[in-house]
Amino acid sequence: MFGTITAGISQGFIWAVLALGVYISFRLLEFADLSCEGSVTLGASIAAMLIWKGLNPFLASIIAFCGGCIAGSVTGILTTKLKIPPILSGILTMISLYSINIHIMSIATGTSGTANLSLLTFSKNTIYGVLRTALGLEKTYVTLICGAVFAVVIIAVLYWFFGTELGSSIRATGSNEKMCRAQGINTDTTKILGLAISNGMIALAGSMLCQYQNFSDVNMGVGSIVIGLASIIIGETVFMKVKNFALRLLGIVVGSVIYRIVVAIVIYSGMPSTDLKLMTAVIVMVALSLPIIKNAFYASSKKRKMRSEAAEIDAEVTKNG
Predict the structure, then answer these.
(1) Cβ atoms 41, 218 nearer than 8 A
(2) What CA–CA distance (Å, rounded) separates 218 from 202?
(3) Which residues lie closer than 8 Å to 295 by C-beta, 6 or more apart?
(4) Lowest-confidence range among 22-31, 154-163, 182-191, 295-304?
(5) How far apart are CA 51 and CA 58, in angstroms?
């Protein structure tokens, strides 16, 4: 059980990077970006292909991040310049990335139509393989340490960036776009930049995930948007009253870890892997319902307290009358 929980925490840190990327588009920009599933696979495909070609895994992950930024920029341009609705823009980018990802993986093998790449032969050349050799620890603990460091660094960078004038402009665009335009802010630019950062982080998460699993597959991003949203919702539920931006980002990481721990425990208990999507939907529904359940509980408790006090007053009046 301990090993299962540790593995869940390790994967939680990887998925937290994706959740932070989803948070930028869905919460800060208020933009329903559905290109997430394609960007995850894009990052994985680029990293796997470059590792096949012998490139340093850290540099491969950085290039994967840049690839995700380009994908996010395309979504932003489709929306801002071509006036295509946000949801449709994300879908168009996601569909396009399906074919692009196959072409990227085909570069590694030299054969067209390559839908997946195995990194088992190159496991020592991944980030986790390099760190495992350097630290002399098991893969789970290396993933745990690496993921925690990545999460802390990313939170620090995001906290700094979104505190700058440019970052504040991106946040303001999501809060009140018309007011931003009235203040002279180019909201088209802030949207494109925000979506680029969002998808870049999602692609980075994909590169980390493929190196952890030792393979890249064209369908590995399916359902990732739901996982990201589930992590955000759980984190926001746990840190419901927190207003500090850094703690909100930390809450997303905590939400991702909690989600993966629950998934790991459920799998350990014997649930078929085919039911994971159903379980994810249930977790999201429960997380979304918690604030309403909590408010209803408090309201019910308050009514009971008021009735009790009223009954005591009536009893006292009757006694003295």
Answers:
(1) yes
(2) 15
(3) none
(4) 295-304
(5) 10
